[in-house]
Amino acid sequence: MYEMDFRLADGRTLHVYDSAPGDDARLAVFWHHGTPNLGAPPAPLAEAGEWLGIRWISFDRPGYGGSTAAPGRTMASVTADLTTVADSLGIGTFALMGYSGGGSYALGAAAILGDRVEAVTTFAAIAPYDADGLDWYDGMIPSGLASLQAAAAGRDAKVRHEASGVEYDPEFTATDLAMFEGPWGWLGSVAGDKSMPNGPDGLIDDDCSYVVPWGCDPTTITAPTLLFHGQTDGIIPSSHGAWLARHIRPAALRLLPGDGHISVLDQAETGLEWIREQTG
């Protein structure tokens, strides 16, 4: 995996990953990481990516890893960072894959970039905060509810929440915990404090971005879209995936009865194969 720092027009640094620099014969797939993670493309999909001819590209969202924080960022502003990366690398069209909150960032990019996006796959994506007809908080675990309600009260309130020493309990299911014994134990190497060497800005600004307008409309997405969601997910309830599937015209939802927030990634290789099928 090649890593590099891009200097953006506003002076920020964006830490970028590229698995096959200059290989235009491969399908470029931008990976959008979860909260709080580094942006490195998923190692558990490296082998599948090779035989499917995938060129993984990604970056640490602002505030994570080697990327400068950008308080007030939205799905739309991060899409501008993605566009800078794609243009700088000479990539015209590409696919998108995102996990958890990163799934929402992938959907935001698809809404803005239109025909430039060939296909989108998400796992446990979050619906817009202003989603009509969705009880947005319903079914969330207490820790997630407290964290996101703090963000909804404003960035200062979220900063205080994170500084209070509150412990976040993800309440992973048994199927979630079992995933850490296999290839997706990789998440432990990119998560938590490892992803935020310069402080909690990445987490704070992610959560704040989930409870404000995206700056784009996911219902305008035209690319083929496949949504995976675990039915026992208490971090991002499956009602979010159902809302997205109903409102994104080209989207299909695969609701997984026995899966939670981590175990939904057991379908990640299937999702990558689907992307390849859509793009020829």
Topology (elements, then pairings):
Elements: E1 2-7, E2 13-18, E3 27-32, H1 46-52, E4 54-59, H2 75-88, E5 94-99, H3 101-113, E6 117-123, H4 142-152, H5 155-163, H6 174-179, H7 187-190, H8 201-210, E7 225-230, H9 238-247, E8 251-256, H10 268-279
Parallel strand pairs: 3-4, 3-5, 5-6, 6-7, 7-8
Antiparallel strand pairs: 1-2, 2-4
Helix pairs in contact: 2-3, 4-5, 4-8, 5-8
What does this structure look like?
The protein has 280 residues and is of the alpha/beta class. 34% of the residues lie in helices and 18% in strands. The chain is built from ten helices and eight strands. α1 (46-52) links the parallel β3 (27-32) and β4. α2 (75-88) crosses α3, α4 packs across α5 (155-163) and α5 (155-163) crosses α8. The longest helix has 14 residues, at 75-88. It is globular, with a radius of gyration of 17 Å. The protein starts with a strand and ends with a helix.
Instruction: Indicate the structural class.
Output: alpha/beta
Annotation field: number of helices:
10
**Based on CA inertia axes, which overall geometry fits?**
globular
Total beta strand runs: 8
Brief sketch in words of this structure:
By secondary structure, the protein is an alpha/beta fold. The chain contains ten helices and eight strands. The protein is globular, with a radius of gyration of 17 Å.
